[in-house]
Amino acid sequence: MAYRLSRQMLKAIGVNVKRLRKAQKRKSLDVAVEAGIEPSYFSKIENGMARPTLEKIYAICRSLHIKSSQILPF
Question: How confident is the model at residue 3 (pLDDT cuts 50, 70, 90)?
Fold first, then answer.
């Protein structure tokens, strides 16, 4: 069963990622590279314009040293 995130959820994920990244005073480029994500795609995630896979979400979490529950809105 496939689960599609709503626009509102995508926006919430992006807001949370950006907030936590800025709290750590890290550049988006650095987080993206460390997570193995194209910087332009990472920017789209932060702006709620992309549908990241769970693998990408977990890679971002590893890069930020946070739990997935800190960015997932559910």
Answer: low
Question: By the 8 A CB rule, do 56 and 63 touch?
Answer: no
Number of CB atoms found within 10 A of residue 54's CB: 10
Residue ranges of the domains in the chain? 7-70
Q: Whole-angstrom Cα distance, residue 6 to residue 62? A: 24
* Torsion angle of C-alpha atoms 63, 9, 40, 59, degrees rounded to 10: 20
3-class SS of residue 43: helix
In this structure, the chain runs to a length of 74
**pTM of the full structure:** 0.90
- Domain 7-70, what fold? 434 Repressor (Amino-terminal Domain) (1.10.260)
